[in-house]
Amino acid sequence: MHKFDRFKKIVGENRVNYLGEKCVLVLGVGGVGGYVVEGLVRSGVGKIIVVDKDVVDETNINRQIIATESSIGKKKVDVIESRIKDINSLVEVIKIDKFIDKDNLDELFGYHFDYLVDACDTVSTKLAVIDRCLEDKRRFISSMGTGNKLDPSMLEIVDIRKTVNDPLARIVRKHVKDNKINSKVMVLSSRELPIKTGDRTPGSSAFVPSSAGLLIASYIVRQFIEEVQD
C-alpha cells in the first residue's frame, strides 16, 4: 500500500506522479495558508515553499492547523515544515522566515515555482504580489478576507471583479480598476456579509479559513492534473 493509493483511484497514478514534480509557494501559513499546505501535501505535491515571519500565538489556536498548545511561540515556518515531513518525508520544503514587502519581492520571485498562493494579511504586500505575478506571468491565487464570517458554504473562487461583501476584496478591486488591469485576478472570497463585532481586530472561526485553504488547494491541484493527458 502507498500513502496516495486512495487519491490515485480518482485521478490516476500518472497524475499523482505529476503532482510530485510540482512546486507551490505559499505566502502566509496561518489560518488559510496552513490548510492550503495541508491539502497540497496530502495530494502529493512534491515541493512547497513556505513564507512567514510570524510565530504561533495562543490566539491562533481556534483556526490555524499548526497552532496547538505545544507550538505556541515557535516559528510558523518551522512548525509547518515539521507537519509536512510528518505527512510525507519526501516533500522538499524551502522555508523563508521573512516579512515580505515590495522592497524584497525580487528574492521571493527568484525561486522557481509553478503556482503562488497569496495568503498574507498585509494589504500592501498583497497588492505588490498580485502586480508582480501579473507582470511575470506567474500563476497565482489570492485569498481575500475570511475574518468575521461563519458560513464556509459562501466561499467561492472568482475573478476579483465578481466579489461582493468582502472589504479586503473591495480594496483589491479598486487597485485593479485604478491601474487598468485587464487580466483576470483569481481570488478566494466569501459572499457572506461580515459580522459586525465593534472591534478593529477581526473575529474568526475554525470553519471559514480552513475551508478556504482547502478550496484553494483543490483549485490548484485540479489545474495541475488537467495538464496531464490520458
Q: CATH homologous superfamily name?
A: NAD(P)-binding Rossmann-like Domain
Question: Major sheet: size, sense and barrel closure?
Answer: 7 strands, mixed
β-strand number: 7
Strand order of the largest sheet: 3-2-1-4-5-7-6
**Amino- and carboxy-terminal Cα gap:** 23 Å
CATH topology category name: Rossmann fold
Mean pLDDT: 97
What does this structure look like?
It is a single chain. The protein is α/β, with parallel strands linked by helices. It has a single domain (5-144, 204-226), classed as NAD(P)-binding Rossmann-like Domain (Rossmann fold, 3-Layer(aba) Sandwich), CATH 3.40.50.720. Helix content is 37%, strand content 14%. The chain is built from eight helices and seven strands, in the order H-H-E-H-E-H-E-H-E-H-E-E-H-E-H. It has helices at 5-11, 13-19, 33-41, 76-87, 105-109, 123-136, 167-178, 207-226, and strands at residues 23-27, 47-51, 92-96, 115-118, 140-143, 155-159, 186-190. A seven-stranded mixed sheet has the order 3-2-1-4-5-7-6, sandwiched between helices. Helix 1 packs across helix 2 (13-19) and helix 3 (33-41) packs across helix 8. The longest helix has 20 residues, at 207-226.
